[in-house]
Amino acid sequence: MIYTLFIVPSITIIAGYLMYKFPPKKINHIIGYRTKKSMKNKRNWHKANNNCGLLWIKIGVITFVISIILYIFSLLNIIDFTEEFLAILTTIQIIPLLFAIPIVENNLK
Predict the structure, then answer these.
(1) What is the pTM of this model?
(2) Per residue in 2-61, pLDDT tens?
(3) Could you tell me the CA-to-CA distances from 84 to 22, 38, 42, 87, 89 in Å, in that order?
(4) Measured distance CA(93)–CA(79) in Å, rounded
């Protein structure tokens, strides 16, 4: 169960990399960074997907490193991971992804 610590950071890094390296070519309502500003024109679309991708990679790496530290603490019996504690940590790992939205939106101004 403790390996669930690494699921969100891993997915975040992979999704960020894909969004950065292989952004959707066309503006669409299905995949990519989709807001009114990002979908306004092709330049905004490309810039928003690149910026969000880079931010997600950074957030993923940071949360992955924190997860490694917490895993080491569990191996040293400093922290005891219960299912509830892992659920809270997973939620905490997801919250920084939401901070990418105002940052990317601000970059589109």
Answers:
(1) 0.88
(2) 778 899 999 999 999 999 999 999 999 999 999 999 999 999 999 999 999 999 999 999
(3) 36, 37, 43, 5, 9
(4) 17
